[in-house]
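To the structural biology subgroup,

Please find below the input and predicted structure for Demethylmenaquinone methyltransferase, which we are adding to the shared reference set this quarter. The sequence is reproduced verbatim from the submission form. If anyone notices a discrepancy with their own records, reply to this email rather than editing the shared folder directly, so we keep one authoritative version.
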Amino acid sequence: MMTTPAEPNRADLGKDPARVSGMFDQVAKNYDRTNTVLSLGNDQLWRVATTKAVAPRRNERILDLAAGTGASSVALAATGAEVVGADFSPGMIAEGRRRHGGVSNLSFTEADATALPFADDEFDAVTISFGLRNVNEPKKALSEMLRVTRPGGRLVIAEFSHPTSAAFAGLYRFYNDRVLPRIAKTVSSNAEAYDYLNESIKNWPDQQTLAAWIRDSGWTDVAHRNLTFGIVALHRAVKPL
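Predicted structure (tokenized):
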């Protein structure tokens, strides 16, 4: 019997958790390939930079939030750390387990970033890549990340940001507005999801504002550096002793 494909699920800037989760469920299978194509391969460079910033050590316990299909989690686990890949999309978690279920020091769990199912002071480091932007209460998520991190533990956030050069910013807007939607229609199973991606990037705060949010949540030693001319910013912080 033929089945009717599910209608594309498109989130909006209201970021209703059920809609955002459902949208990611639908793109899980081809998610990593699509990201590599749309980022012109830069996603892999950003992942390397994030892993270096986390600086995982053997036997440390690390929480990788918004882990998706686990590409970032596998990179962290390769260092010998005990990694928990968490995501609020069941489809992403299922795909991660399918691909990486044989990695002994990597586990996956479904989790809401604003209400993490973990104990206080449980992790040596918490990281989230390109996921904080999709949380409907990002400041609450930052506080939850602080709660589950041990005193002296580390936070690393990789997120889309604002290019620092006006000329490059114009080129970046042209790519996102004119080029990216056409490529997404070719390579993604849910091209409308990438319309939301574009909107969410435009409406996300700049580097200094996110740094202030992190600081206001109780983190210290807050710093950031730009990647790819500020398309992405890598924020780092430490939980006070």
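Summary notes: The first helix runs from residue 17 to 27. Residues 1-6 have pLDDT under 50 and may be disordered.

Regards,
Lab coordination
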